[in-house]
Write the structure tokens for this entry.
Amino acid sequence: MKIVAVEPIGISAERAQEIRQNLADKGHEFVWYADRKEDAATLVERMKDAEVVMISNIPLREEVLVQCPKLQFLNVAFTGLDHIDLSYCETHNILVKNASGYATEAVAELAVGLMIDVLRKITFLDGSIRQGGVRGAFLGRELRGKTVGIVGTGAIGIRTIELLKAFGCRVLAWSRTHKPEVLNLGVAYVTLEGLMRDSDIISLHVPLNDETKHLISKDMLALCKPSAILINTARGNVVDMDALAECLRDGKIAGAGIDVYEKEPPLPQDHPLLNAPNCVCVPHVGYATREAFDDRIEIILGNLS
């Protein structure tokens, strides 16, 4: 069986050689590409003879898949699958597995880190002191004692709750499914409207699908306290970005910490959030830690079994 990693997926050349030898011992061919190319022509060239493809968050659409007639299995080194044409895969009997759970800790920690950054204005103050600034009358806000609304209580949402409880936060939750482990943490499920209205911080942890696209709409944002902040480490299109930028500009919410966008960075310079006040933007790095990448390799190798 020919197994192709169309991108580095966070492993070194030495580790790739180990994997190549291990798979060769089992009668498989392993091809690993040390660079990341997202154009359709390159993807087709790399995938056209593969029976198994390893890929992370590079978009994979029908125009590529249709030119890979031997493909049987997409081994996705990522949690979300909205970048994959799942309808095509289902129709053509291509098995798709993700690396669920590899970045739970990493994303939860970044969500909390963005909360602290926005509350204490760490990024802003770093820029200020480099320009000769001083504290002046600046006062930040603490995470302790804040009411945090968790939107989506999958594995990442639950781990974020656990971290927030350690900070002394009161936590509310909204999800389509009410989980006993969330209730056991002393967290109440509420309506989404109630969560938006009562939370000092709203943190998003839902997948992107037809039901969650622009879930955080202009109307939902209008329910927020003027002192509230929004954190998004889930998917960009869960939020109406234009509405969020407008709320930040108009002072209808106090700040935001954003790791995900409508498309992968680089962002156009006129992207509404890049010019919005009190908005910390990072380039989709929630999943990107050494520890998470090491865990991810083990998961996708396990998927081959």
Q: What stands out?
A: The chain has a mean pLDDT of 97. The first helix runs from residue 13 to 25. The chain has two domains: 2-100+289-303, 104-281.
